Amino acid sequence: MPTCAALIVAAGRGSRFGGSLPKQYAPLRGENVLRRTLRAFASHPGVQRVVVAIHPDDQAIFNATAAGLPKVSSVHGGAQRQDSVRLGLEALAAEAPDLVLIHDGARPMISAALIDRVIAGLSGADGILPAVPVIDTLKRVDGDRIGETVPRENLVRAQTPQGFRFPAILAAHRALAGESLTDDAAVLERAGKTVKIVRGDEANIKVTTMDDLARLEGTLGETRIGQGFDVHKFGHGDGVWLCGLKVAHTQGLVGHSDADVALHAATDAILGAIGAGDIGQHFPPSDPKWKGAASHQFLRHAYDLLLARGGSLTHLDFTIICERPKVGPHRAAMVASVAKILGLEEGRISVKATTTEGLGFTGRQEGIAAQAVATVRV
To answer: How far is CA 343 from CA 222, 228, 261, 266, 313, in A?
Structure first.
């Protein structure tokens, strides 16, 4: 099996990006852009080493970015991209891998499947370029006027990682140093070698501007699941609160607040999904402020925390466990109640009920239990 190294180009300053950091170090959903890129290659079983060409001023931030990732080392890049690639290749020359994949550090959405396709393509070529078809109509312009329409047949958009047989691309870069060619496939082409294409990936976006970063953030939402469980015992009263609805019963539920066991479980489910503790931390029963409080306040608080983190609630599923009162006749009203509290369509709320066949404290009708599962996207 051929040996394969990855060379990640990350020495640019990103003048078009405009942020306080070079684009490759911009935060992206909890990790910076470059770390996401490095993780994809460092975790790939077909890649034995990852060398990153960085700007000399970025050594400290790079060290923090690459911390804990296997196979990764750095080399200082040059003034132009082509210089950085050549210096990275020279750093690999002593071990001379069979293959090298050259990738833009600001393309963090690289998939294992695309890496596989590039490596596989090199079995029959000196160079491989992943490409996606041009689907928009192309125009050549003269100032602010259309000059001509450019036929898009046989045109593709080039991506990275571009793969090469290592001796061929090293020799080409040495021979053509200082040419400022736009990508490494062009370097190999100028050296008289043939570059073939494999199918690219539309998701493999290169971050060039702040808009690109915002677009990626919009696609990187993470789905999380949170669960909650609560119990309240029966006591004096003429009804129980379930899902924000008072249901007539011969007893009430005992609790510091209104003891809405279902909303308490749902509150914990949402808090759990976003790692924000539990209901007792936010509304301690020792605080007289919450004596007899309506539990819809608790649920709404948890939901507002989710929204503040840029999240959304995909689905909220309740299971109420009791012998009495019967939940079935009130299920639709409970769904409508929760939907109103959260301002969501009813299709995102589910209320179910079950018994324990006379077993346990719920079977003995000593209290009610409830479970809730919240599916959120953050």
So the answer is: 22, 21, 20, 15, 11
Our measurement of the distance from residue 75's CA atom to the centroid of its chain's CA atoms, rounded to an integer in Å, reads 29
Say how many domains are in the chain. Answer: 2
> For the whole prediction, is pTM greater than 0.70?
no
Range of the domain at 240: 223-377
Query: Which residue reads 């078809």 in tokens?
Result: 133
Q: Which residue, 104, 118, 199, is CA-closest to 164?
A: 118
pLDDT at 15: 65
| pLDDT at 18 exceeding the cut of 70 | no
Give the SS3 label for residue 99: strand
State how far the Cα of 90 lies from the Cα of 283, in Å rounded to an integer.
61
- Cα separation, 224 vs 268, in Å, equals 14
CA distances from 282 to 276, 302, 343 (A): 9, 9, 22
Q: What's the pLDDT score for residue 308?
A: 87
Same domain assignment for residues 247 and 367? yes
d(CA 280, CA 264): 10
* pLDDT tens sequence across 145-199: 999 999 999 999 999 999 999 999 999 999 999 998 989 999 999 999 999 999 9
* Both tokens assigned to 347: 């299709």
Could you tell me the two tokens for 286? 């020792």
